[in-house]
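Figure 6 in text form: structure in, sequence out.
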């Protein structure tokens, strides 16, 4: 019995041209079609999920009283980019008399991963308020 450890030179490596056969082309085409179908399904599901979320959130906002709506919009606008905060501020259910959107909005950079406990976007100025304990 011969051990083949360290003898990789004995095994020839096929050239790229040798690998381009009808069988490999069919396999690659099948793979690409399958990936394309799965990607289309995932994109459709994500679109439907976002649509359902949007419709549901609007119904939920309608059920809130004006103070709760103001709090909701203030919270969302605070973590949104300046561009998105302006779009959110144009929502017909946003209470009148709220401060102008974008005054406290983030810049046009995407939301960062949380880096500080209680700061949802990693911004230090958005820390959650600490509840005071009654003594």
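Output sequence:
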């Amino acid at each position: 019995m011969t051990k083949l450890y360290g003898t990789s030179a004995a095994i020839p490596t096929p050239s790229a041209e040798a690998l381009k056969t009808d069988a490999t082309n069919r396999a690659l085409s099948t793979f690409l079609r399958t990936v394309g179908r799965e990607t289309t399904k995932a994109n459709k599901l994500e679109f439907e999920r976002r649509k359902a979320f949007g419709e549901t959130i609007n119904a939920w906002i309608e059920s809130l009283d004006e103070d709760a709506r103001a709090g909701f919009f203030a919270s969302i606008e605070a973590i949104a980019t300046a561009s998105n905060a302006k779009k959110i501020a144009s929502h017909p259910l946003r209470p009148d008399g709220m401060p102008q959107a974008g005054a406290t909005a983030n810049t046009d950079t995407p939301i960062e991963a949380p880096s500080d406990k209680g700061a949802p976007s990693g911004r230090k100025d958005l820390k959650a308020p600490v509840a005071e304990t009654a003594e």
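Caption detail: Confidence is low (pLDDT under 50) at residues 104-111, 119-131.
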